[in-house]
Structures are given as C-alpha cells and as structure tokens.
Design brief:
- The structure is a single chain.
- The N and C termini lie far apart (76 Å).
- By secondary structure, the protein is α+β, with helices and mostly antiparallel strands.
- The chain folds into four domains: 2-75, no CATH class; 87-204, Elongation Factor Tu (Ef-tu), domain 3 (Beta Barrel); 209-358, Threonyl-trna Synthetase, Chain A, domain 2 (Threonyl-tRNA Synthetase, Chain A, domain 2); 403-527, Diaminopimelate Epimerase, Chain A, domain 1.
- Strand 18 (332-341) and strand 19 (344-351) form a beta hairpin.
- The protein has helices at residues 2-22, 29-39, 43-52, 59-75, 206-230, 258-273, 285-290, 353-372, 380-410, 435-448, 472-476, 481-488, 513-527, and strands spanning 26-27, 56-57, 100-101, 108-118, 129-131, 133-135, 139-144, 146-147, 161-164, 168-178, 182-195, 199-204, 236-241, 246-251, 278-284, 304-310, 314-317, 332-341, 344-351, 418-420, 423-431, 452-459, 464-470, 494-498, 502-507.
- Helix 1 packs antiparallel against helix 2 (29-39), helix 2 (29-39) crosses helix 4 and helix 9 packs parallel to helix 10.
- The model is unreliable at 73-86 (pLDDT under 50).
Length: 531
C-alpha cells in the first residue's frame, strides 16, 4: 500500500506540472478517478493537496467516472477471483451498516451477519453479487456487526480462521477492509449454508495470529534498533508482516555492513530477552507526538490514535495486533538486506519457530557440505580455506603452463612477422591466456625485437582479450598502441584504449579475432611515417 500511495503522489505531481504548463487550474475528473482507482489515492487527499497549491478538481467529472465504472462492473460478465478483486460490489451495501473490530484481546466472538456477498471464482460464469444465502462450496464474503478478525492494514496481513453457524461452516482465507467501514471475511462455505442476519460464531486461527503478532512486534523493535544503530534519518518506507516473516523498508543511503546488521539483530534480541511489557493507549494525536511516538511519514491520522509501547524502548502509532510481552517473540533473525529503490533499503527477518526452522535448514545444508568434503561441520571453515589455497595454487600453475605453451608458439613468430612501412608487425591468436599472461608475452617479445609492434589476442571461450605493445622506435615512427586498439577492438565486440606504447581491450565476440588481426595491419600502416 505504501509503495502504491507513493506512486500516486508521483503521478499527482506530474499532473500538477501538466496543469501548470497548460495554464489550467482544475484537475479533470478522469485524472482524479485514475488516481483513486489505479493507485488507491483518496479523492479527499487529492483535493486537499491541490487546494493547498491553488488548484481544484472537477468533482462532477470524478463522480461521473465513478458511476461509469460501477455500471461497467455490473454489466460486464467478467470473472474475478474469490479474493474479491471486483470490490465495487461492497459499495452497494447499506452505508449505515458497519463492522467493529473486537479482536485485540480475544480470538473469538459471536455476532450477526449484516451482508453476504457471492464472489465469483476464477473461471466461473457470473458476477459478484449481494445474496441472502451462501451455500455449500460457494466462495464469498461474510460481513458481521462485530469481528475478532484483523483485516489487512498497515502492513499486517489479515487473519484466517472459521465462521460457524447453526447450519454451516465457512473457512476464512483472508480478512479485508472494504467500502463503508466494513470488514469482509473472504473464503468458502465448507459445509451447509449461511443466511443473512443469522447469528454466527467467529474463531480466529490463534496459531497463525500469534505468528503474525510476533513478526509485527519485532518490526517495531527493528525500526527502533535501526534508528539507534544507523541514525535518526531512518524512516519507515513500507512494511509487511505475515505468519512467516516480517519485511521492513526504510530510508538509508547505502547498504548496511555485516557489523551494522549484527548490531541491529543483537539489539532486537536483547530487547526480546529483557521481557519488555507491550502496552497500548488511546490518546490525542498531539499528545502522542509529544510522547515521541514514531508515526508513518505522509500517513493521515485522526484526532485520536492508538499508541503501542514496548517498555521504554519503542513507542509507535499503530492499529495492529501485538504480543503482550517481547519475550513472546522468542528470537529474531535477519535473513536479507537489499536495496529496492534509491535511498530505500529492505530487511527481511524471521521470528519464533521460523528462526528455529531456518537454522535447522542451514544445519542440514552444512551437514551435506561436510559429508561431501569428508569433514565435520566444525572443520568446514578450515577445510574450505585449504581447498581455496589448493585451487589458487592449481590456477597459478595452470596459468604458468598456458604462458609457457604460448611462449613456445611465439618462438617462430618473429620469422613470420610482417614488414609494415619499415616496422615489424608481430600479430598472433592464442587460446586460454588471460590479460596478465598476454601482457607478459608482449613484454617478452618487445625485449627481443626492435622497431616492432606486437598484437596478441586470446580466445577465452565466451570472450576475447587483446593487448597491443609498441617499442620506443616504433612509437617514434608514429605507432600508437592506444589508437590502434580503438580501431581493432570493435572486431571482437569490445572497446579499450591506452598509451602509445601499451593498450588493452576485451570483447564478447571471439569469432572476430581473425578480422581483428587483419585490421591491425591496415590500421598500423595508416599510422606509420612512410620512409
């Protein structure tokens, strides 16, 4: 949501520029609707932002676009998935009917259904519709007066669970906020049927909720720890918590170092082990800010806000569900840190039993590696270091052998060299010689020859490497290795340059080596002073 909202702000900014350029003062209803429909950008926010800058929106045009979309949704026989992608159906429910969340301290509640929605499954004919009954096998949404199910918001994913009635069972696969301050339990009837207005019992999947709570509470500790370790410039840029992991996006100008990651992880685990009580308070927004509570930048809050505290360590505005004490989180492990945009980093982390599963998997992989290397897990580091030394030694020996073989093949090259305007051109193609090897070979040839230009190209499988050297006498006559390589490197699909006496290049087209060597003679001829 945060990312989508930010995109909406960017689109609105570009629309403002277009208005300014055209001299207009009113944003079209179509554009205002596009912001609302595509980016979830509230029309009230659009109106408020524009009014601050001396613009307005075509409200009649916006309403017309909204009406057109509703008609299209009703008339088209399109299919949607059970998650309720076609959300316009919820706008047809009586706006006086609302849902109240009662699940901060309980996992179950009894209530009455106030709306039933049949949501068309993928591949099923028909359209979403308000119904008086949901029968066995139907996918849909049940909306009740009260619910212990938390609906997706603020990065926290919605609850799963079951709804039971006298005549049926309903599997809740997701819980969403929908139009008109209602909470929709999305899922499928697994037994019997549900009728509108009947009494139901709602039961949240407690294990799933507790896992989500661990991850959400850990996110609060993580944000505070990041500000402690990296600095107060760290601001939340987005978050996501499900039963498996937490994902936290934040403002920071560079990748975190291994030491910084360790410090953050250690600090979070330290606060978990300190058994900090987690408390909540409802207070005015002004008082919350005075208390130092962290808020999401750009988020709009009401006059009254919910503040979540974790001891004296963390204070945040938050409407989500949490553990009662940080010790319930169990443990915390950062599994990745990466960049997702300019100045925005992302951390993914695990908590509780998922940390144990993560380490169990690593332990199993280490055991497999140890068996392959015929060592114990404790000996792996030394074993790998020893193998790296052996590999380095073998690579060095291999390169040495390649150079010796190449030098042997160069032995007779001076006899087959070409005279180009009074200067000797020695040009050859080799295989499997790296850039260092090519430079060494060129140096060897240059010491043996006078008034010479040496061009060596190596075919290294999926790439070609090229070195050109010219001795002092050849340079005096006009030879220039750097300019020469600029002309011949394109033949091997690359580029390069260098000094008059030495230049090198690389390319991705070894098949062009023969053409490069031919080009070398013509290019050198053009450089040299005719005697």
């Amino acid at each position: 949501f945060d990312k989508t909202y930010e995109q909406g702000l960017e689109i609105l900014a570009s629309m403002e520029k277009e208005l300014e350029a055209s001299g207009g003062k009113m944003l079209s209803g179509e554009n205002a609707f596009r912001l609302y429909d595509t980016y979830g950008f509230p029309v009230d926010s659009t109106k408020e932002i524009l009014e601050e800058r001396g613009y307005s929106i075509d409200e009649d045009g916006f309403e017309a676009a909204m009406k057109k979309q509703r008609e299209t949704a009703r008339n088209s026989r399109k299919t949607t998935n059970y998650m309720g992608a076609d959300a316009t159906i919820y706008e047809e429910i009586d706006p006086k009917l609302q849902s109240v969340f009662v699940g901060y301290d309980t996992f179950q509640a009894k209530s009455r259904s106030i709306a039933l929605v049949h949501l068309v499954s993928e591949g099923e004919d028909g359209e979403n519709a308000l119904v008086d009954a949901l029968t066995d096998g139907m996918t849909g949404a049940i909306i009740t007066e009260e619910t212990p199910f938390y609906a997706t918001m603020g990065g926290q994913i919605g609850d799963k669970g079951t709804i039971e009635s006298k005549n049926g069972s309903f599997e809740v696969r997701d819980t969403l906020h929908v139009a008109g301050n209602k909470i929709a339990h999305i899922g499928q009837v697994t037994r019997g049927m549900f009728t509108l207005g009947e009494q139901v019992e709602l039961v949240v999947d407690e294990k799933n909720r507790k896992d989500i709570c661990r991850n959400h509470s850990a996110t609060h500790l993580l944000q505070k720890a990041l500000r402690e370790v990296l600095g107060t410039h760290v601001e939340q840029a987005g978050s996501y918590q499900d039963a498996y992991r937490t994902r936290f996006d934040f403002s920071h100008f560079q990748a975190m170092t291994p030491q910084e990651l360790k410090e953050v992880e250690d600090l979070v685990n330290e606060k978990i082990q300190e058994e900090l009580p987690v408390g909540t308070k409802i207070m005015s927004l002004e008082d919350a800010r005075k208390s130092g509570a962290m808020a999401l930048f750009g988020e709009k809050y009401g006059d009254k806000v919910r503040v979540v505290t974790m001891g004296d360590f963390s204070t945040e505005l938050c409407g989500g569900t949490h553990v009662k004490n940080t010790v319930e989180i169990g443990s915390f492990k950062i599994v990745s840190e990466s960049g997702i945009a300019a100045g925005v980093r992302r951390i993914e982390a695990l908590t509780g039993r998922n940390v144990r599963s993560y380490f169990t998997k690593i332990e199993q992989e280490m055991q497999k590696a140890a068996e392959k290397l015929k060592a114990s897990p404790a000996e792996l580091t030394d074993k790998i270091a020893h193998l790296q030394e052996q590999l380095k030694k073998l690579q060095s020996e291999n390169e040495s052998l390649k150079r010796k073989e190449a030098q042997k093949s160069l032995g007779d090259l001076s006899e087959t060299s070409k005279d180009v305007n009074g200067t000797k051109l020695i040009a050859a193609s080799l295989k499997g010689v790296d850039m260092n090897g090519l430079r060494d070979l060129c140096d060897t040839m240059k010491q043996k020859e006078k008034n010479a230009v040496i061009v060596l190209v190596s075919d290294n499988g999926d790439k070609a490497q090229l070195v050109v050297m010219a001795d002092a006498e050849a340079v005096k006559k006009g030879a220039h290795a750097g300019n020469l390589i600029k002309q011949i490197a394109p033949k091997i699909g690359g580029g390069g340059g260098g000094r008059p006496d030495m230049a090198q290049a690389g390319g991705k087209n070894p098949s062009g080596i023969a053409d490069a060597l031919k080009e070398a003679e013509a290019a050198l001829s053009a450089q040299l002073i005719h005697e």
